[in-house]
Amino acid sequence: MSLKQTLRFPIRFPSRFPIKTLISDASVYVVASVAISLRLCLFTGEAQAEPTDHHHCRYEQLTSGHPDGILKRYCGRQIARIMGWQGAEWLERPERKSEEGLDQLIDLLQLKQGMKVGDIGAGTGRLSVLMLNRVKPEGQVWAVDVQPEMVSHLTSRSKLLGKNQLLVSQSSATAPNIPTATLDLAIMVDVYHELEYPKEFLHNLIKSVKPGGQVIFVEYRANDTSVPIKALHTMTVAQVRKEAQDAGLLFERSDSTLPWQHVVFFRTPRDAKKDTGSGPAPG
Ligand SMILES: C[S@@+](CC[C@H](N)C(=O)[O-])C[C@H]1O[C@@H](n2cnc3c(N)ncnc32)[C@H](O)[C@@H]1O
Question: Is the CB of 42 under 6 A from ligand 1?
């Protein structure tokens, strides 16, 4: 088992489990029923989040870990180091279009004209522009990133596109800086695994999405030898679900037909309370 797998799936058996008290006919029946329902839940991919889906994800500080990660684990997963702005060229490489099936990804999102979309961790904005082409002229794309160098790149791109096409915003490590209930859809392409504060960031991102709106995670597939990406920059659908559902998102479906990535679709609860938002309007 690789170091990554060891870190992500620490299996602990609760020693306090009273095995002896289970050996009565009635108890065996109850235990069997619970086990069957649990298996059913695990294998029906379309289920919505239930209270039992909440795993109470928490942070753990590490004293040593994988060199590609920060010394912090969340929900059993070591958080990856951020991809620096120096990697901008890699995001813009021409072969990415076919390697990652960029057009297919945009089709999977089923964007409609007029939608307000948040490209969270937009990097150079390559995908922001592809999405904008599907939602304009009435729709908008918010392109946000935490690195000022990426924000400059996004601002230059936005200027070329013309006024009010691409709204650029500097996010913080814990919040996307998009006003409350603005977005119909928020997407993180190859971003979530490197959020330094995933719990806080998701909490704030959910506020920026309309109740019943979409939050979509696109992550390189973990444990797939055909995906040429460092292990800490990959995730399983199960891990994405665990963390997203812990944050209160409702699972809809996942799609793994892209060459390298999983696309995992969630919705925000419809009864989300109105809040003060995660920040001011963009500059
Ligand atoms: C691998 S790049 C992907 C860029 C873009 N989504 C794409 O696919 O072309 C990850 C990006 O996430 C950004 N990022 C990391 N943490 C962030 C945060 N807390 N808020 C916003 N962006 C973040 C990084 O700065 C980086 O630009």
Answer: no
